[in-house]
Design goal:
231 residues; mainly alpha
């Protein structure tokens, strides 16, 4: 490791922990503004580790603990995951689990898209977050923390930092994000594919925002019918 690695790890960790002290007022923030901030943050989180890796004289193709693509199993899992999410969104679009999902998603109503423009922006944010956060957390921080603390410790630490980075989702969202971070770390270690966990993360974000648009957009209409995705 180089001094650049130590500095970057400290900066990323501090950025995550600092989110615990940031308060976002839903009444004063717009969803499009929130999505724009998300894209900017994701670009920084993804770009800095790649730049630091290159500056340290290491090839980008060897970024992180494994390579980018992994083996053929990664392709299989990517296909199964994508198909499962697509089926889930289509079922929700047809009314499945509607009451439960409305209750669940109202806790995050202020970040869920209500118009097609917001939906499109949320998808851009989803893709950016999938790339940027996975490069930062699973690609760099897991590599760094595992070298310092061992693999189990690295998984826990990166999961906790991932939870802190999602403090805007309140305590329940932070807990789920921390657990998701550990699961994504395990998926990365098992598959050897950073691109796989990028896909898992980004596609889950897209599906989540899409479901929020369906159940909350429709819930605010006089008919009470689910909003239709522009598919």
């Amino acid at each position: 490791m180089t001094a650049i690695d130590h500095i970057l790890a400290a900066v990323l960790a501090a950025a995550c922990v600092s989110q615990l002290f940031v308060t976002i007022d839903p009444e004063r923030s717009t969803r499009l503004g929130f999505y724009g901030t998300g894209v900017s943050t994701a670009v920084l989180f993804g770009g800095l580790p790649l730049l630091a890796w290159w500056a340290a004289g290491r090839p980008l193709r060897a970024f992180g603990r494994h390579d980018w693509a992994g083996g053929p199993d990664a392709v299989l899992w990517a296909g199964l995951w994508t198909a499962a999410l697509l089926i889930l969104v289509l079922l929700v679009r047809r009314g499945a689990l509607r009451l439960w999902l409305v209750s669940l998603y109202r806790a995050y109503a202020w970040i869920m898209p209500r118009t097609r423009a917001e939906l499109a922006a949320s998808w851009v944010t989803s893709l950016a977050a999938g790339f940027g956060e996975e490069i930062a957390f699973r690609g760099f921080l897991l590599w760094y923390a595992a070298a310092v603390l061992g693999t189990p410790g690295g998984l826990v630490v990166t999961g906790l930092l991932f939870g802190c980075a999602h403090s805007y989702q309140r305590l329940r969202g932070m807990i789920w994000a921390a657990l998701a971070g550990i699961v994504l770390g395990l998926a990365y270690l098992a598959s050897g594919s950073l691109l796989l966990v990028i896909l898992l993360h980004a596609s889950w974000n897209v599906a989540s925002f899409s479901i929020g648009y369906i159940v909350l957009g429709g819930a605010e209409r006089s008919t009470g019918e689910p909003a239709r995705l522009p598919l």
